[in-house]
Amino acid sequence: MSRADKVAFGVYVHWPFCLSKCPYCDFNSHVRHAAIDEARFASAFAREIATTAARAPGREVTSIFLGGGTPSLMQPATVGAVLEAIGKHWSVANDVEVTLEANPTSVEATRFAGYRSAGVNRVSLGVQALDDASLKALGRMHSAREALDAVAIARRSFDRYSFDLIYARPDQTPAMWAEELRLAIDEAAEHLSLYQLTIEEGTPFFGLHQAGKLKTPDEAVARALYDVTQETCDRLGLPAYEISNHARRGAECRHNLVYWRGEEYAGIGPGAHGRLDIDGIRHATATEKRPEAWLMRVETNGDGVVTDDLLNSEERADEFLLMGLRLAEGIDPERYKALSGRPLDPKRISLLREEGAITVDATGRLRVTSSGFPVLDAVVADLAA
């Protein structure tokens, strides 16, 4: 069976702890000044994996993603214990992709060698910027030099690695960003995740922004920065395969494709989300966010699940549309029809084609165009209506 024919099944594991909380971050991450009891967490991860596998048995795991928080604060033995538990309760594909997120401040060559021995074969580094002033403004704990040193360690330790950058930062110009991107692509080899800075409610940046103390680029500059991103990455061999992710052909993050293609995945750990098909029904699961509360819940009940919603056909189809149209490969409208029980409205498709927001190829596959991507939410809302 070729990779294209294989049914994808992902396992996402959330490590919720960080050394410090970044001022723009609204992820489920927590700072603890006392030592983390990693053995207890590893045991709870294993228990939740066992419970989840009992609900969704017989899957072959094609990708595992250790996200956070800062998973690179975990001891390699903890990572090994988690991967061992996954392998004990599900079968694991020979070519499984196992990604670990790392922060440049917690990257040491010895630790990376430990992760590789534990079974990690891809790392994703939270670099965020390649100039010191921006890193300081973003509340990052590392310098640009440390970030590039961490990338070099990743390059020596793993065949596959990626890193993240944030753009549309305060005072950033398209020319500055183009220069930074060129440097990033020289270092990145095969994959980059490039996110526009968004001001999320409940973060320190939100309060500063509201008070006028944090100025982000206006809409025109933000659009110019987006255009520079697409043009530079295309020209230098890392085209977008998803709205914020760029890769050389064949180097796409397989785990992320699980989400965007609407496949199944298990969510393990505090605040993790999952999508599981049980008895032909899609379950949208979420676990307790607070790490210690999650721990107690798992030790008592076998899992930390606090939400287990059954998605009806309309909800499944809408989610498929919302996620799938983020991809450069687009969606097959026939799959939407199979999920929802009704086709997409041909009049809306025709109108969006005339506006240049989407294309439909000879096979009927529907894709958002480069001019449609900046207004993706509106395109999705129009098609889903």
TrEMBL record:
It comes from Bradyrhizobium manausense. The lineage of its organism: Bacteria, Pseudomonadati, Pseudomonadota, Alphaproteobacteria, Hyphomicrobiales. This is Heme chaperone HemW. The keyword Transit peptide does not apply. It comes from the Bacteria. Transmembrane segments: none annotated. Probably acts as a heme chaperone, transferring heme to an unknown acceptor. Binds one molecule of heme per monomer, possibly covalently. Binds 1 [4Fe-4S] cluster. The cluster is coordinated with 3 cysteines and an exchangeable S-adenosyl-L-methionine. Keywords: 4Fe-4S, Chaperone, Cytoplasm, Heme, Iron, Iron-sulfur, Metal-binding, S-adenosyl-L-methionine. One of its GO terms (biological process) is porphyrin-containing compound biosynthetic process. It is found in: Cytoplasm. Belongs to the anaerobic coproporphyrinogen-III oxidase family. HemW subfamily. NCBIfam families: hemN_rel. Its cofactor is [4Fe-4S] cluster. PANTHER family: COPROPORPHYRINIGEN III OXIDASE, RADICAL S-ADENOSYL METHIONINE DOMAIN-CONTAINING PROTEIN 1, MITOCHONDRIAL. GO terms for cellular component: cytoplasm.
